[in-house]
Amino acid sequence: MRELTAKKTRRLAALILAFGLLFLAGCGGEKAPGPAEYQEGEVFRLGTTEQPDSLNPFLSRDRISKEFFLLAYDPLWRLNAAGEPVNCLVEDWSLSSDQLTWTVRLRKDVSFSDGVRLTSADVAFTYEELMRGDTAYTHCFDGITSLRCPDDYTLIITTSYVKGDMQYLDVPILPKHIWAAYEGNMAGFDNENMVGSGPFVRQIVDVGPQEISWTFSARANYFGGAPKVGGIKFIYYATATGAGRAISPAEPELDGVLGLTDVQLTTLEGVPGMQIMQTYLPGSQIWAVAFNTRDSVFQEASLRQMVEYCADRERIVSMSAGDAAMAGSSWSSPGVDYHYNVNGLRTYNPEAARAILNSMGYSDVDMDGYLEHIGTREKLSLTLYTGSEDDWSSSAATILTEVLTSLGVQVDRRVTDGPVEDVCGPQDEWDMCMLSWRGDSNAVLAARQFFGSADSLTGWSSENYTTTFGRLQTALDREDARDLAGQLQQIVYDECPYLILGYYSDIQAVRQDTWTGYEDTLNAAGGLFCNGSIDAYMTLTRAGAGE
Q1: What is the dihedral of CA 386, 388, 389, 392, to 10 degrees?
Q2: How many domains does the structure of the chain reveal?
């Protein structure tokens, strides 16, 4: 069985185009470099409980696909393990006096894994194509108005405002000589081979009939220096229990694993040679309740805050995830440097919720156990949607409903067949829905989803948020950006269009008895994988290698 079945017609078309364009690649009469040479060394076997939704950046939105892109492709700047941008494809850059024009000079020693030299045309092509339509990267290009390539190794980017997050755009640069064949139908390319300039190359290899895996071989001729490991093999496990068993024996099937649960915190603790890392990465899950502020019931922030007083966060995270989660408050992951601890936290307090209800004129007028508005005599009845794909939301909804009902609020719980966003959109009728999202190391992209408009999920908008968000977009100084992101988190908390319930941690493990070299790459949040950096993959070394 092969990892993925090749689509021969498309592959042949791409190869023909690549062959033809080889004569045009490079600068002047320079000889194009050869294809990727592979680094010798052992392969690190990494278990994962997630599968990629696509190997095509125009389609993919999940984090394991993004991890694959980080290995196979290069961005202009990469984030190091500390979450700081460092030059990657960029040799140097400069910013105009009005801070609206970036002149980026590319390295001249970079080639794609098929041997074709990377030039500014590849960067411009990637940016122009990804910024069209709706991709996971589209909003990375907010503010960019033009791209020019005066020569093969210079890119001039013009923006409509000072773009403070330019160096935080982890956009994978794609080879134009391959992707141009699919212009107008980028979503139709399976991208199985993932030809890129990154430190690892996707290898389609024969695997066992029961194994779903993706192998990436290390490039010996990578311009940034060869990885120390021979390759990374991602192996899918349907359950965290299965992955935990595969890494725990004396002769394990895995060298590392991500996506573990609180159960493995207990079962793997004390296993000889095991290092367990519980971390809140930039991309960790955030659990929340969204309020439909278009609904007359929730147009007033005070009633939304009433629901927050009914949310026993500590009990919710304990029932939903044990020790693998922590109570939440603001919309950012604890693993980002701009995470903000809000002021005036409304903790679990049913009596405070009751006082709000009384002040708004709700009382059990007809003595049936449920609240009505004294003036309109309308029952206070709320619909609460949960998604069938969110394991945590069922227990969270049960706990929240229990408290609201005890106060006399009618709650109509409904479970969707798929993602809750499918039925809780701008045009749908709903009051509350439970949903989750993943954080982002880029504060601008993380804050953008709360940017209020008529078409936003909740319908909430705030002039103060809009103004402050504009200042965040233009903040070139990281300290200023952190401060502004904190202000935005406080604004959302105060007005409560979302009730943040908790943060779900990433639990990872590695066999430290057989692997080393990664210790200095543990980021500030404590994780090795899926943290936005490739540092750990580059430095993993088999214990005793070279001795």
Answers
A1: 60
A2: 3
Both 332 and 274 in one domain: the answer is no
Give the burial class of 103: count Cβ atoms within 10 A of its Cβ; 0-12 exposed, 13-18 middle, 19 or more buried: middle
Q: For residue range 407-458, what is the model confidence (pLDDT) as tens digits?
A: 999 999 999 988 888 888 888 889 999 999 999 999 999 999 887 666 788 9
CB 71 within 8 A of CB 195: no
Positive or negative: CA dihedral 327, 329, 335, 340? negative
Q: What is the CATH number of the domain that holds 107?
A: 3.90.76.10
**202 is a domain residue:** no
CB 257 within 8 A of CB 511: no
Task: Compute the distance between CA of residue 130 and CA of residue 377 in angstroms, rounded to an integer.
Answer: 53
List the beta bridge partners of residue 415.
386
Measured between alpha carbons, how far is 282 from 280 in angstroms, rounded to an integer? Answer: 7
Amino acid letter, residue 511: R
Pairing status of strand 77-79 against strand 43-48: unpaired
E-assigned strands of 328-394?
362-363, 372-373, 381-387
Beta strands in 49-136, from DSSP E residues, in sequence order:
77-79, 85-87, 90-95, 101-106
DSSP 375-389: TT--B-EEEEEEETT
- Domain-located, residue 322: yes
Task: Reply yes or no on whether the pLDDT at 21 is more than 50.
Answer: no
Condensed to tens digits (0 to 9), the pLDDT of residues 142-157 reads 999 999 999 999 999 9
Task: Mark whether 413 and 491 lie in a shared domain.
Answer: yes
* pTM, two decimal places: 0.90
Q: Are the C-beta atoms of residues 359 and 309 closer than 8 Å to each other?
A: no
380-394 burial, b for 16+ CB within 10 Å, e for fewer? bebbbbbbeebebbb
Helix and strand element counts for the chain (H, E): 14, 23
Sign, CA torsion 469/470/474/475: negative
- 427 and 527 in a single domain? The answer is no
Contacts of 398 (CB under 8 A, 6+ apart): none
CATH number of the domain where residue 423 is located: 3.10.105.10
Q: Which residues of 159-196 are buried (b: 16+ CB within 10 A; e: fewer)?
A: beeebbbbbbbbbbbbbbbbbbbbeeebeebebbbbbb
Contact (CB, 8 A) for 488 and 250: no
Query: Does residue 532 share a domain with residue 521?
Result: yes
Each residue of 32-46: pLDDT tens digit? 567 889 988 899 999
Give CA–CA dist 372/386, Å, rounded.
25
In terms of Cβ atoms closer than 10 Å to its own Cβ (0-12, 13-18, 19+), residue 19 is exposed
